[in-house]
Amino acid sequence: MKKQYALLKLLLALFLLYVAFPMIGSTTVQLVNLFWLVWFLFFLLIIGANLAVLLNIQTQPNEKYVVKKQMQRMKN
Question: Is 41 left (phi over 0), alpha (psi -120 to 50) or beta?
């Protein structure tokens, strides 16, 4: 179920980019260009997070934590 939501969010983000893309090049004010840059960076963050969920990418556990867990198991 998690992957379905991630795919739905990914498709929604791509649709919003599709709608906004024609307006990106037609700006003349510097502040608007800054807005588009921040918006695009936020878009990349959303795409990356949802792709990580779809591809089931997980971070590696901290080495100190793993050693501590192993020591606790040996004591029991």
Answer: alpha
Q: Per-residue confidence of the chain (76 residues) as pLDDT tens digits?
A: 788 898 999 999 999 889 888 887 777 788 888 888 898 999 999 999 899 888 887 766 667 777 777 778 888 6
Which residue in 7, 1, 2, 3 sits closest to 47, CA to CA?
A: 7
Measure the CA–CA gap between 14 and 42, rounded to whole angstroms: 12
Spell out the domain ranges in the chain.
Answer: 2-75
The model carries a pTM of 0.64
Q: Distance between CA 13 and CA 63 in Å, rounded?
A: 36
